[in-house]
Amino acid sequence: MKSEVFILAIESSCDDTSAAVLKNQTVLSNVIATQKVHEEFGGVVPELASRAHQKNIIPVVDAALKKANISVKQLNGIAFTKGPGLSGSLHVGVSFAKGLSMNLGVPLIDVNHMQAHILAHLIDNNNYEIPVEFPMLCLTVSGGHTQLVLVHSPNKFEVVGQTLDDAAGEAFDKIAKTIGLPYPGGPLIDKLANEGNPKAFKFPISSMKNLDYSFSGLKTSVLYFLQKEVQKNPNFIAENKADLCASVQYTIIETLLLKLKKAIATYKPNCIALAGGVSANSALRAAITQLGEELNLPSYIPSFEYCTDNAAMIGISGYYKFLNNDFCGLEVTAQPRLKV
Ligand code: KG4
Ligand code: ZN
Fold it and tell me: Which of 94, 149, 208, 272 has fewest C-beta within 10 Å?
């Protein structure tokens, strides 16, 4: 086995074009081009996203190689996101990775985006302690997914609960839109919530059977509440923005924690972790850390740079698959609905 493995990774599942170079578990570069074009539409426009990926992919890969200070000849594998994600966006990354792998004669490694969010915890990153206590119970919360995943090893994942409708990030973004905040609203709710009272308004915490989630009821309940209040006072939203954000954020986090606690009691994991874009949320990070302390369970919170979509997480997943000789052929295609 090679002692030094260089992986080039490509991520293009949604609206960020990203490329990273890893040397074993260490990230040498992680370049992300965020697409601003979607802001004015209040959400990602798939057609515009794939066009922007086409424009960005060569300069982004080039920048990642330059920053890592390595030549393509040193690469041992090309990892890419196979899915889940937007079909047209994924297709750009898949085609580019195939072309490069064929040209260089190095293995092609297909990566599941949701598994990659979790494996971001295994990136060797100076001040970050890598989890070793499997099984790890990971709450994966992004714009498209909300899942409780029991991670038995870096290659074995079991989904034990998930949302039946909206994802937690989607709930943040859609409610933010109702409050008049631009897309993506999640980070803005987080910021405004710092100034507000989380108990100012009471919204319902959904409790599905077993370990599943539902967030569509919360979205509707906030919408009806605001319609009623705005009828009485047209300035209601502007006057209560921070309290609204804090109360919505509190409800989403309480909903997430309810099933996380139940899953811990059921599966008795050796540690807990948070992953996905919503793991950038400051109150959620604090809540998971506190829960770990209360239950005397190690808890792992990702570094901010590896919370939202990035290619470094695709690279670390690619590295583990490389160690297992788990490669794919050139016939591989994008799988927009790929499951964990
Ligand atoms: O994982 P990600 O980058 O993309 C997907 O795979 O979906 O997650 C993006 C989601 C968006 O819904 C965004 O609003 C949310 O993560 N997000 C946050 C925060 N930062 C990003 N939600 C709440 N608080 C944040 N600080
Ligand atoms: Zn993601």
Answer: 208
List C-alpha distances in Å: 323 to 94, 183, 320: 21, 39, 5
Is 168 a pocket residue for ligand 1 (Cβ < 6 Å)? no
What region, left, alpha or beta, does residue 281 occupy, with left being phi > 0 and alpha being psi -120 to 50 degrees? beta
Please say whether the dihedral angle defined by the alpha carbons of residues 242, 244, 247 and 252, taken in this order, is positive or negative. negative
Say how many Å lie between the CA of residue 13 and the centre of ligand 2. Answer: 8
Highest mean pLDDT among 14-18, 20-24, 49-53, 132-136 belongs to 20-24
What are the tokens at 93? 């990354």
Interhelix angle 186-193/282-295, rounded to 10 degrees, is: 70
Residue 188, ligand 1, Cβ within 6 A:
no
Residue with tokens 């370049």: 31
- Which residue CA neighbors atom 8 of ligand 1 most closely? 277
As a whole number of Å, the CA-based R_g of the chain is 20
Classify the phi-psi angles of 202: left when phi > 0, otherwise alpha if psi is within -120 to 50, otherwise beta: beta
Does domain 6-123+306-323 fall under CATH 3.40.47.10? My reply is: no
Cα-to-centroid distance, 83 and ligand 2 (Å): 10
State the DSSP code for 54. H
Give me the amino acid identity at 231. Answer: Q
Is 5 exposed, middle or buried (CB count within 10 Å of its CB: 0-12, 13-18, 19+)? middle
Centre of ligand 1 to C-alpha 329, Å, is 32
The third-level CATH classification (topology) of the domain covering 132-301 is Nucleotidyltransferase; domain 5 (3.30.420)
Cis bond upstream, residue 298 (ω within 30): no
127 against 317, higher pLDDT: 317
Contact 87, 336 (CB under 8 A): yes
Q: What's the gap in Å between 208 CA and the centre of ligand 2?
A: 24
Domain boundaries for CATH 3.30.420.40 within the chain = 6-123+306-323, 132-301
> By three-state DSSP, how is residue 328 classified?
strand
Kindly report the number of other CB atoms within 10 A of residue 143's CB atom.
24
Mean predicted confidence (pLDDT) in 200-216: 93
The total of other beta-carbon atoms located within 10 Å of residue 267's CB is: 14
